Amino acid sequence: MSRALGKHVLAALQKQDPSAAYQAISEVLDSPRTTDDSLLEIEILGSSHGLPDGVYVLQDGPAVGVLKLGLVMAFLVARKILAAHLEAASTKTDDELFAATAVILLMDPEYLTAANTRKRMIQRQLLKHSDSYEEILLKEKHFIDSLLTSRLHRHTKSPTLWSHRRWLFQTHASLHVPTNVLSDLTNVIFVAGERHPRNYYAWCHARFLVGLGNEQWNQDDLLEAVKTWCFKHHTDISGWTFLYFLLKRRESLDNGAASSLVLAEVLTLVESLRLTNESIWVFLRTLTAGSLISDTDFDRFIGVNRDILETSVDETDGRVMEAAVNWCKTFRMNG
Hints:
The protein has a 3-stranded mixed sheet with strand order 1-3-2. It has 16 helices and 3 strands. The radius of gyration is 24 Å and the shape is elongated. It is mainly alpha-helical and 335 residues long.
């Protein structure tokens, strides 16, 4: 969502009551989690939607549409609430501050002060209500995950929001709350990766989740899920890089068996669809250059590359594939 305000928006701000917009939007963002834990699917609506005056939110189950004008007005109210709190000039409750910071982060995901304020309140609540720490953390996770997976271009790749989520899981780990890596990968990382292709922050967070010490996940299931996602998004280099990361972690356990199997499957996909994009060939060249990949697998890599190259008419594709082979030969030999 663009932060630029048109003349009609500025004029409307002078005519309408921002407190009504703040109330409507903050209530939706701070609503209790549903029984099935569905994340909110938030979209920002422009003036072309023609909502009646005084209507700032449309909601159908987890799907939420927020009028851009209403969000701007709500943000102005929320910022005043937060500023007063930081100056110790208000007696707002935690619930009121959670509502205000939620509106601020919806408007501006890089508003670090709002994110840090939520951290301080969560820490305070964990000390006061130690018997319900899991519910406190899950409520915050639900809100942050809703922002990260909604159709909000800046939010899905927000370093502030991903850092806040990382802090949440570090807090989870310190309290010995188990982490379902496969569920988080499927419901959050994969979705954020689709919303914003080559989502560096999302896939870095995936590496962090895998590295947690209290994970509950099956390595084979995780590897299969990531491989399937990469097959569906074969131009996304970030996904392929994460798949390579998982395979390298497995090598010490299976002596490269998983890497060899995945290499064969990817080469079959490439051969079948005649794929020439750089993302998939960078993955193939890097995996094939590994010392645990057999000469037979290496020869197949060379053969598939040569076969596709002979029928390719695009010079750029040709350069990509030739570079992949040359790189692989160089580093396989030196490795």
